[in-house]
Request: fold
Amino acid sequence: MQAAEIDEEFPVVDIDAPALDAARMLAEHSLPGIVVLTADGQVYAVLPASQVVRFIVPSYVQDDPLLARVLAESVADRAAEKLGGKTIRELLPQHQLALPIANADDTIIEVATIMGRLRSPLIAVMKQGKLHGVITAPRLLAMALKCGLIDNGHFRAVTTRRLSGLSS
Amino acid sequence: MQAAEIDEEFPVVDIDAPALDAARMLAEHSLPGIVVLTADGQVYAVLPASQVVRFIVPSYVQDDPLLARVLAESVADRAAEKLGGKTIRELLPQHQLALPIANADDTIIEVATIMGRLRSPLIAVMKQGKLHGVITAPRLLAMALKCGLIDNGHFRAVTTRRLSGLSS
Reply:
């Protein structure tokens, strides 16, 4: 079974859209993350929802839970001005993130390897240079279960079998 | 608004349950992760779905996407024996993971800080030493939007206001 056979349609967001759009989409559809595209449709980043959550925390607080606890409204209000009206591009890290992308013909085990290594809640599947769809972690597990790659009491790492081609 | 007001019920899994149980629960309910409890009900870990996905990949392949690509069925079959019938405990890292937990009275900004720092798709909310509920990243964003902490075109970091207590 190949990546392009199990991926799904998923909302995407433009890198120059308001950061609010990403937050709203994730919230409304209960998404684990969102694919960020450039103006010409290239995948620029995959933003886990847990990182979009950072956008509501002033940067000087992000690594200091104690500061979050004592943060008073007056200070937070001033921080708000710095965050207001930002685009997604402005809120992304300066260095580009490692892209959790897979090729259309990648096997489940290849997708699982990329997902686990990058700790990404979803993988963007590329076909002929374009975004074909997205595979979330629960979706990948569901397909692994369905294909018997994980069976009763056994995790079977036989995912490299091209089941779609070999089944009989 | 406090953590205990926005958390939700969520499936949990016992640390000595088969790893299959975690995979199945995540797949069936499309969960972003799952809370692992010890026999006496303490939170031991929060497993992101992206890490449970690792269970279907032999450990020697996990950090090597190239190896995943060339992995043949015969090799994978042998690896399967090593993974078969494992419990969640056996598949967790040797060192205990940093626990993404919040207190019942933590504010949205505190929960967001913990979530962002640990890159966790969900936060376990503790009340009087027991698991009270779980907050996912999309849920946190939804509540931040609802409370006007993120408003039209503006991310407002006023989340430390105890809205529940101060609203009038």
